[in-house]
Amino acid sequence: MNSKYTKYKFSGVEEIGEIPRHWESIRLGMLGIFSSSGIDKKIIEGEPLVQMINYTDIVKNRKHKTVFGRDVDFMVVSSPQSRIEEHRLNKGDLVLLPSSETDEDLGLSSLIDFDEEIVFSYHIIRFQFTREVYHYFKKYLVNHYTVLKQFSSEGKGTTRQIIGRNVLRNVVVVLPTISEQKEIVKYLDEKTSHIDNLILNTERKIELLQKKRISLISWVVTKGLNSKIKFKESGSDWIGKVPSDWDIVKLKFLFRIIKIISGELGHNVLSVTQKGIKIKNLDSNEGQHSMDYSKYQIVQKGQFVMNHMDLLTGFIDISKFEGVTSPDYRVFESSNLPVNKKYYLYIFQYCYWNRIFYSLGQGVSNLGRWRLPSDEFKDFLLPYPEVEEQNRIVDFLDKKTQDIDTLISIEQRRIDTLKEYRQSLISEVVTGKVRVCKEDLSKKSTNTILQLS
Questions:
Q1: pTM beyond 0.85
Q2: What confidence category does residue 438 fall into, taking pLDDT thresholds of 50, 70 and 90?
Q3: What DSSP letter does each residue of 192-239 carry, written as one string?
Q4: How far, CA to CA in Å, does 378 sit from each of 71, 354, 373?
Q5: Which three-class secondary structure state does DSSP give residue 128?
Q6: Could you tell me the CATH number of the domain that includes residue 217?
Q7: Pair 279, 306 in one domain
Q8: Model confidence pLDDT, tens digit, residues 298-339
């Protein structure tokens, strides 16, 4: 069974509290050397090519036990050979984030677990150990609450938190004996692996629910709510068969494009995101900013705003706000025929999710410039049931999608709880609040995990 150690002492750091008496609390800078890199994402002709670990790699690597193995595809850049040699990563190095948009990622690190020619970018910091630490204990040394809390408390900045080299050097970590480091790794690897599997299974449930949601929308907006009626061919591949009393019309007969340039400042600036239309925070450094918002186009409440310039990551929504948006976006509204706008919003959003618009696009997709031309947009075929049926479909989908969204929220909360428990478990073990015995498989912690699942 897990237990406490016999004697404890104060670590000297409030976030850590007490640690086993024979363990060591030590500043990270006493265990190795920090260094930065000047290598960027460019490829310059004539320079040798090399793989590079970047900021986003470390953030995404959260799901892989904070270890970089050989199975990761990193971006390829170029650099002079001398700089490649100087900034090459070796097995046993840590790479850390000295800046982040969120507190939880500040100081996040990953362990290098391979020997290949690879460098690190100027966005991250390399830490090379000069004192013996068990290889796989390194992945837990920094990545737990009591250390990350020290980093976040020292972060400077408003929209982006930054920690300097002195903060990295002076953060306090806890060092057990080498034999205990090995036992801790064995224990935590087993427990966190179990938790990670539960998280992965829950994420798969969410993916299935999201697919169910999209499939339901696809069926109902094109087939209606009565499966026993006669159907006819629509003439459109993505629509398929529709109820025989439905019409198929071109988009231009239902909607008209509106473009009115503001010519003045002072309006809310609206962004089209994957979660809908948001009012842009102009005081933030996040995202792209315009030099002159007077050249943006007017958006009224109830109008559609569509990012048709990027059909891969763009989206569409009905605006709940008055404001202005990029002149490159497409603003449109219903025309002469009566429509339920929410019915067509379901259709348009499905066309993004299922790449219907993407298949009609033009441009350079690998650069995020895959756009839907105006003529293709206007001639896009749409189902047109009677408005009363459009209303019934919207009522049905609002209820059903809300039910699915509730289930997704429940599963997401379960993931959040598992992640919190994972972090708490690591912190307690790595700081000695819980003693790991060689024979321990901890029925208590296993039962806790099963309850969380």
A1: no
A2: low
A3: HHHHHHHHHHHHHHHHHHHHHHHHHHHHHHHH-S-TTS-EEE-S-TTT
A4: 45, 19, 9
A5: strand
A6: 1.10.287.1120
A7: yes
A8: 999 999 999 998 888 889 999 999 999 999 999 999 998 999
